Amino acid sequence: MRPLLDAAVVLAIVVVSLLLLGPPLEGHIFTLQWSPHFFEVLPQTALSDVKVWSFWAFATVIVGGLLLRADPKLGRLDALVGGAFGVWALSFFLANLMGPIGLFRGTTIWALLIAGAVALWRLGPPSFPRRRPSGGVLLALLGFVLILPTYLLLQLGTPVPPFMDILATPASAQRILTFGYYLPFDNDPYGYWDAASSCPGVEILYAFLALGTGTKLALLAGNAALIPIVGLSILATYRLGKSIGGDMVGGMAGLLLFATILLRVVAYLHGRSVTFALVGAGLGLLLEPRRSTIRLFLSALLLGTAVASHAIIGFFGMFVAAGSVVFWLLGGDVRAFVAGIGLLAAASLFAFPEIMIGLRFELPYPILPAVQVAGIALAFVSARALDGHPVRDFALGRWLRWALALLGAVALIKHAPPFEVLAEQWERFPLLYVGGAAGLLVMIWLDRKPSRVQLAPIAIGLLFGIGLDYVSRNLWETFSDGKVQTAVEDFYHKVDYWTPYVLVFPAACLFAFLAARVSRRGAVYVLLVLLIFPWKNYRDPADPNYHQHSLVEGWAYQLELAKGGYWGATGHRRWAQSEAELELAQVLRDEVTAGRITLATHVVQAGPYILLYQDNVIFSVYTGINSDGYVADYKFDRSIAGGRLRPAEELPARLAEHPPYVVLHEHTKNANNLYDKMAPLPADALRDYDEIFNKDGVRLLRLKALAPDG
Known about the structure:
Strand content: under 5%
Strand order of the largest sheet: 3-2-1-4-6-5
Oligomer: single chain
Number of helices: 28
Structural class: mainly alpha
């Protein structure tokens, strides 16, 4: 009867929460009608979902099975972690190895998977001891079950991720699909931002999934990855929590992920949110007390892939890993310290392509994959040196951990200026803030005995975020280069994600402590009430992209997007493009097929504005073709420093250079006219072009010399 009782309690919490939430969010979930466009896109999204889920699951079984055969003591959980995240890391390596020579294709990927399946069949399937899932695993699974229904509807109804500034990622993935090549230093067709802002680890994953499933649009493949990435985010949080404090801490952490905004913004499928899954998995394997070669080897590769997927978030994870390795030395374990430095160096070598892209330091093929191979070898050697090596602890390391944790707890309790981040976190994430402060004190208490909890990574991660936020807010203006200013200032925006994520783990330790000392079911029920019940500002809800919100509020927001779509100010609420704009993309794809558009082609594009939530022609997202934008009424912004957007006044000079194709967005769905904001083009500016498409204010011009009979 206990499972039935638990289910009844959870259901009661949900029902009471929905009844309370009804009036404030009326129109979001209760009265909003389903848009007919949902059923229009449903066949495409459902088909891509089934294909991507099946493909990723199959690849996970192959990679995880091979890992388990290499180390039978790895266990089912870490085999699942290694398999699913190993596919992600493998895609990044294969793209750098085979992409520049045109071999990063579906046939190559399937050949490797079939070879892995044959090897696994010949070795024989791994055997598992029959064991019931632990309490922590069940809690993490409960979190996934609670979010699955509404996110599934959202995924089915949004072929284009529902956020305005993340489309550079699917555009870069589409470039790989369209042309059959991956060029690390030339994979930014979108052109809005500096190419150093790209997220190659994520872009390549979406292209990998599309190639493996035969999906023609990277948008659909990336969108189909949403549910797996949500599940992996919860799994990785559990895995890190388990390493820090045990199974119950991991389970509580998996639930407390709902108190952050990560399970809200992960739907945008950008590197700044999905990379937390890689960071959590990489740190969880690195900090696992039962050290083994495979776990530590995977930790280095996953942390390196995290840097490649989002340099800033990945760097945060690497900093925590480095601090933990230093504490291995403070614990008196020189061997572990040396091997740990080797693992960090290996992760950096594996992330080397992204580092070079970020530094804008172009290197010829095959230097990048050669460096990655060196990183893989170093990761294996370093991991093997720690295989079975026990974790040691000495008084010096213990006292320093306590001092850092106490400093973090005091900072949270005081949250005084000039550390604005603490005051903001208190307002925006009260559950994690209070739970994190109390949890740090609990962790100090538990840390009196060796291996009870791992306090150092949490203290380092928290204090690092506080310090970096201060530097970012106060020093970014001291730099003269706009690109550098943007990069430095951007740190505190990412700390907005980082600090709540770090606080998840001491808060989880607090609830796990209450579960052990008072009542396990009572602690879980209290936590579920705090997470599901809309107790914070529910009558005037704040922006869920920046503030903690209840689970039922999250359901409402997700269903609102699923029912009505996101791209309301564009030509189509689901596709973010009008019928004419989608037809334009098809015409451009036909030009690729005819061989007139290549990887080197840049299409000049003129439009009335830069606003991303308005009706913009974004053919690069659907074709992967380079777009060079010229914007009427252009106003410089630091965020686009280094991108290819230019003022429309420079367009005549560019046309004089005879670019091969020109797109003119003369009339928009928002009733904007291009020539109301810029002077008409000179009469002879387009005399060397043929018009090959003209519909609803969208025109495509091709240089006459490129005509089939030209």
